[in-house]
Amino acid sequence: MAESRGESEIKSEQRRVGLLYDERMCKHHTPNHEDHPENPNRIKAIWNKLHTTGIHQRCVLLDAKEVEDEHILLVHSQKHLKLIKNISSKQFDSRRARIASKYNSIYFNKGSSEAASLAAGSVIEVAERVASGEFNSAVAIVRPPGHHAEHDEPMGFCLYNNVAVATSFLLNEKPELGISRILIVDWDVHHGNGTQKMFWEDPRVLFFSVHRHEFGSFYPANDDGFYTMVGKGLGAGYNINVPWENGRCGDADYLAVWDHILIPVAKEFNPDIIIVSAGFDAAVGDPLGGCCVTPSGYSSMLKKLMDFANGKVVLALEGGYNLESIAKSMLACVEVLLEDKPVVGSSEAYPFESTWRVIQAVRKELSPFWPTLAEELPKKLTSQKAHPILYVLSSTFNSDVEDNEGPNVVSEKFEEILQDVIEPLSKLKVNEGQVAGSSDTWRSDLSKIYIWYASFGSNMWQPRFNCYIEGGQVEGMTRPCSGAVDKTPPKEIMQKTFPHRLFFGRDFSQTWGHGGVAFVNPESNIEEKVYMCLYKITLEQFNDVLLQENTRVALMSSPLFDLTALNSFTRGETNSVEVNLESGWYRKVLYLEKDHGIPILSMTCKLSELEGFKSGELSVRAPAEGYAKTLIRGLVEGKQLSEAEAIAYIERAHTRPL
Ligand code: X5A
Ligand code: ZN
Fold first, then answer.
1. Which end of the chain is more exposed for a tag (fewer CB within 10 A), N or C?
2. Which protein residues touch ligand 1 with a CB less than 6 Å away?
3. Is the pLDDT of residue 114 over 90?
4. To 5 degrees, how large is the angle CA 165–CA 249–CA 331?
5. Separation of 281 CA from ligand 2 center, angstroms?
6. Phi and psi at residue 136, in whole multiples of 5°?
7. What spatial distance separates the first Cα and last Cα of the chain, rounded to whole Å?
């Protein structure tokens, strides 16, 4: 038939895209099917999405292949290979969990060895076929992921470093394919620590990773992902890290990094193939990532990569834990590889100011190796920045706050803040002279919204928490609280536990005197449990609690934590927001989950301080005596624990390092 021939002609012009999925990689799961973000449903969800849209029919489908030992040994130690190969055998049944617990964020079961072998073998399989020209590009929907896996240890849900194995395979085992330079683009929200180390001194591999870093407080929580880590020896300059200073980064931030770092460098490097460590945990909605890259953002990033290496691009799945987000993101990528539709630049949003700062720092650090980066970015460009969602507390300028910066600095700061506030305000629609959400109506606006405030410290004892609402002072407190403006008692109270770690830090508090106060580690960990007492109060009251937790200043002209911030939680864009206060120990608002549609919020120290506690720079220490007594009272009266259990729980929290 003429018509179908016409169609097949179009097809033959279409790009050949390899697509690998194999159910056998679902055999790796937690030993007793406990919940875990890295679970078999991830790859099933992606495969189902590609299937229901029918796009899989337009790709060349491939089955997974087990990896050869010698290919693993290109990047891993003999000991590591043995560990992963043997961990599933019968004689390890009783020891498997104990072995896993020795590693960082690792579980094993009897299917782990096979799945890990298939994941690594599959990335080799697709990479070889793209390198040889059999396919234009390819996607490997694999798990377990790989980029955290180190030469000699599994880590961060990763067993073998799949992308590193395939990279090394092409360079060292297949010289006939003519691949001499490989660009690895790691857009997983976490730093690809394993991959970085494996090619640290290798100029044939340009490793590029963009990830949340927050000065070393985001997983894997060290300095390996900082932009000063550029490689060594012949490999110097061939390792590029773009470390975000905060979460909530989205399309605009990623695309600015592409345009001003990755793409110019890729032009000079001129790779023969690109392998993407394609985690989708920077996607909007991801429970671990806290960033907000959209499917269209991933399309744009991928499209820009296809201008290199004759379009030879391989995508290997890494992280990504929201099933819907990862499925949609991967679908968008496959559409780009098939060259379905033109990719239209998506957002009108601007990058964060911190994004420009990081881009400029990276460019400066790498410019000795990549002259194209030496040029200064135009001010006109870098001044296009998103206004932060944080609000300015008028009392920041009170004499109360320590000011050792001199008068000019203050007025400069004012200018900066004015710019941030006036610019977005000018874009707001003004209705009959009233600006939506203006500062004089915030109390009545926020008084209509209920949240759960989840307390884990002395506030678990209800009479103590009541001081923050009604004002006053109970036993053990060295000074009274002023209370909230709205003194209505909590609408409801309930007890609940969460998978976070409680710890005690600091030496002194205004309210309790000498000794540590309670914090939670915002990273969730299924092995941990923190007891919390939840109070249903209004968002207005929550702001008054937040202020009292942090300062003695009573005046608040605009909310510390407003609706925009709350929406960024409920839309899944982020799990934590830092409030704009100069001082205070609870400047991070955390989003735990929702209960019947009502968000549960808590507060803890800033991430930079958490890092201090982790490194030992700030020490975990025993709570003040009166403070500990109040916590125990809260736990016992709230019927969460017996007195003995409560004492043991507090003891454990301040005696273990973070
Ligand atoms: C592959 C990946 C994340 C590990 C987080 C551990 N790993 N807390 O996304
Ligand atoms: Zn990740």
1. N
2. 105, 145, 148, 156-158, 188, 190, 219, 279, 281, 318-319
3. yes
4. 55
5. 6
6. -70, -40
7. 70
Q: Place 2 in a pLDDT band, splitting at 50, 70 and 90.
A: very low
Ligand nearest to the CA of 190: 2
- 568 vs 13, which has greater pLDDT? 568
Query: Considering every ligand atom, which ligand is closest to the CA of 187?
Result: 2
- The secondary structure of residue 489, as a DSSP letter, is P
Structure tokens at 516: 């540590």
CA angle 618-620-626, nearest 5°? 120
pLDDT tens profile 203-217: 999 999 999 998 888
Share of the chain above pLDDT 70, in %: 89
Work out which ligand 1 atom sits closest to the CA atom of 104.
6
More confident residue, 441 or 452: 452
SS3 433: coil
> How confident is the model over 317-350, as pLDDT tens digits?
999 999 999 999 999 999 999 987 788 765 568 9
d(CA 535, CA 90): 49
Strands (E), 493-557: 493-498, 501-505, 508-509, 513-514, 517-521, 530-538
Q: Which atom of ligand 1 is nearest to 190's Cα?
A: 9
Tell the residue nearest (CA) to atom 7 of ligand 1.
156
pLDDT greater than 50 at residue 109: yes
CB atoms within 10 A of CB 588: 21
Angle at 468 (CA atoms; ends 462, 470), nearest 5 degrees: 90
Mean pLDDT of the chain: 88
What residue spans in the chain does CATH classification 3.10.490.10 cover?
Answer: 441-655
311 pLDDT above the threshold of 90: yes
Q: Can you tell me the mean pLDDT for 116-126?
A: 98
Tell me how far the alpha carbon of residue 150 lies from the centroid of ligand 1, in angstroms: 13
Find out whether 160 and 122 touch, Cβ atoms under 8 Å: no
**What is the H or E stretch that residue 628 is in?**
helix 625-637
Q: Name the residues annotated as catalytic.
A: 148
Amino acid in the structure at residue 147? H
- The pLDDT score that the predictor gives to residue 63 is 97
Residue 260: is its pLDDT beyond 90?
yes
Domain made up of 19-377: CATH architecture: 3-Layer(aba) Sandwich (3.40)
Cα–Cα distance for residue pair 357/245, rounded to 1 Å: 9
CATH superfamily of 441-655: Gamma-glutamyl cyclotransferase-like (3.10.490.10)
Ranges in the chain annotated CATH 3.40.800.20: 19-377
Q: Whose CA is nearest to atom 3 of ligand 1?
A: 156
Atom 4 of ligand 1: nearest residue by CA position? 156
